[in-house]
What does this fold into?
Amino acid sequence: MEVSVSDDDDLVILVCTNPNEPIQTTNLINQEILLSTTDILDSDLTSFLTFHTIKIQTHRNRLIEQSLYFRGLLSGSFSESCSGSITINWNLFVFMQILKHMSGFPLDITTENILPLYEGALYFGVETLLLKCETWFSEVFSPEGFQLMQIQMEDLIQIWKFSLDHASDFILHLCIGYLARNFMWAKQNNLFGKIPYNLLLSSVKHPHLTVDSEMHLSDALLLWLESNMENLEMRNEAEDNYNAILKQIRVDLLPLWFAAGKRNSFYFRQLAEESLGSIFRALNILPIGYLDISRYSDLQHLRIRVTEYSKKIDLSSCPQLTSAILLLSLIPVPYFTDPMQRKTIEQFFISSGHPRRENYEFPQKLLDTFIFEAVQEVDISKCRRLLIEHAVDYFSQSFPSLKILKASYLLNIRTTGFLQLLKKCSLVSEIDLTVDITPLIPTSVTVLFSSPAVIPLVPEKTSSLKYKPVETMSFHESRPIISYVTKLTLEGRTDVDDLSLRYISKFCVSLCHLNIKGCIYVTDIGISDLIGRCKNLNSIVVCDTSFGINSVQALCPAISDGGNFPSLHSRDDHLNSVAYNLQSLHMGGCIGISELSLQELMSQTQVLKSLCLSGTYLVDQALYNFKGSSLEMLDVSDTKISEAALSYVIHGNPNLKSLKARGCQNLLKGDSSIEKRESGFSSLHEELHAELGKKCRLEELEFGWGFSSFSLSALEPALTSLKTISVGLGGMLGEDALRQLPEICPLLETIILHFQVISDIIVTKLIMTLVKLQVLALCYCFGDISMSSFKFPMQNLRKLRLERVTPWMTNDDLVILSQNCRNLVELSLLGCPLLNSDSQQIISRAWPGLVTIHLEECGEITANGVSALLDCRALEDLLLRHNGPGLQRNFIFHAASEMPLLRKLSLDICDASEGDFDIPNYADRCFLSTLKIARCKSQRCAFHLPVPSSGSSRRSVHVETLVLVWNSKNLTRTVVKERL
It folds into this structure.
């Protein structure tokens, strides 16, 4: 190729070869090509890369102006300054890109070419390209850049290593800040364990480290250590390195259950003990706001991690959290370096536990809190020592963009009073105030006697801060301030009544989702009144309430009072009804709805995605009336529907992902004998299986009657993505089907089997094949299983229920079980008569972080009392029945005192060493929400019941269970008979 030049003295030839890449075309080894700068700018460079040598004729002065390398080479005393050619040994493609840039051609920088370009710019001293690359790094690694283009983890690691090799502090700092700000994203990446130690440590120390909670940080660091310990040990740096990185964790702010569960961790054991010690010291200090801050020179370990980039703050399950700690985390850092301001902080910590709201004042010097605009979600669930009034004050000042507030399992909150407090947080749109569902659900028990206990709301000689509920203000006399709340969850709350619902309908005018499941004190009239006022509702959860005909009429205005409805309604009536716009309707256990009302309701729900009708008077015609085609979840458990009606709904809803139909006896027609059931399964369920198998891709499946091995085989196309399967009474999978289960459903995470025939081979295959299995429940199953089924590691298993399937279990077997299921948080054993009191220590040592323990008819576990079991300090749900009469009279108070998160406690009089238990008063209840004391045998009642209204003398009554329910109103004492 010829090149025309005007001034030969101003030109120089660059002889470029690529020493790093093999020659691709052997017949061109000795060939070369001569190009001008214009050729490079106008052509596709890839067409020249087949040449071994490329000679480029370019202007000497341009090279000198644009490149420090060429300036020194061509302007100095080097021999090249007088030569007409210069040899360049660099990557051909990269160098020509750099040359194009020096000629004024715009380059498109990407993650693929940034490092070669930057390295070339450094070597050749092209300052304009260096600036362009550094600008790219600054933009991509900025907070805004993360939203536009996320750097892949492998690219981040490569850039970090490159920066180390080239001593680029600028890029190193960018990498550290990027990882620190986006730590929650990084910890979920599969390559998190590949992050270099220095990068990880530096990011954890960075002031912009942004994590949802201290637990998330701990989890991530432990995961990294497990992935890198072998490499650290090879360099004899293991102990120093993992100690240095774990010291960055603020152990005083870990959730109780997490700290307790890590007591067996090789790396975390010491920190877990330190964390538990700190938590319990804080819980035992009477001035509730006070903390011993003398051992923290900079107070950093008491500050919750909140940065300008934080979007979510998760403080759940931290009973040690107080208003003082929360405020400490929100005030500016300079306060801690100034001696006078630090003294003010310390004085505030000592005195901030004052119980009375009217006497509480913010220290003026602490009013200047940081504002964190990015925070949108805060979770303070189970933080029972956090004074709600103070927390809302802090949130309103520091989190102006707060939209989601979760405050579940807090009994010291009254619903309407709490909603009024939130008028300060004007943008909150989602509120979760869930508490445990009361054991007094009418469909579950027969109430023999119930009365409120007369107990002072604030007991004498007790800190009212600990138990005083947020007061209900006088809201019915004035118009409430309108809120932006669209999603409100009040599940299980016993302080919610019709008056509360009326306030909610006025306060939450934009309400779209309402969950009042288990709110037993609301009436049908109250629910219907709210539905009539809240026209934007598109999601209603009213399971186990008095939801009935009046509520149905509010959803469907055209329906008549008696449940009879006209045959024709105007289109406008349907379009204007709340039912027509519902996307979620859960009304399981609502038995106040007639069959005809239910049929009309189903005819007006056109866009439902989630529907729960379990335990209602659901009949086939109601399902035939359903015209929707968007269902993703359907629950018709314990109803009278038939296979044909269920098939009809499935046919019209191909997006169904969850189907629950346990307890539906009408799905199995004809004679129930095993022989006829097996022979008739194919014809009986052909239509149902065809609809499910061809149309749906299920993720959750619950069946009982009518479900068989044929069902599993026929549904195979629909079950490839199944994560949960539950087979109950009436279902009959058989050994062959259970063996095939892992192949058909390789993604299973939950398996619940009732009344199935199982064997060692089946259990072993399930455990060894299903690597994602988290929940395993074998209840009342038949077959021959032994300890050999559980001799394989189940590291991901979190919940285990073995009920009436392991009567052979001994303490030695329990030890083996504990070695293979190290990460359990829930354990239920029923019918293990060979266990004894030593089992307690095995359980508490193996699983110190257990949240739920159910032990029933397990030999003599409690024959000598309960001591080691109480070392499971994070327990929230404890059931002990028929395990030996060793429980002391004061066991209830003792258990609640030792386990700060304990909410549910179930006992049996049979296990009381003195024949009875002392019932704690309102002041002593700690965190208990319900207490159940059962009497299993017919004998003289130990509970004193009131004199009957007939005037007869006091008499003994044979009862099943005494239930004491604490709520934010009072203590209810109820005697019930539970229904099986």
Observations:
- The chain has 35 helices and 30 strands.
- The CA atoms of residues 893 and 920 lie 6 Å apart.
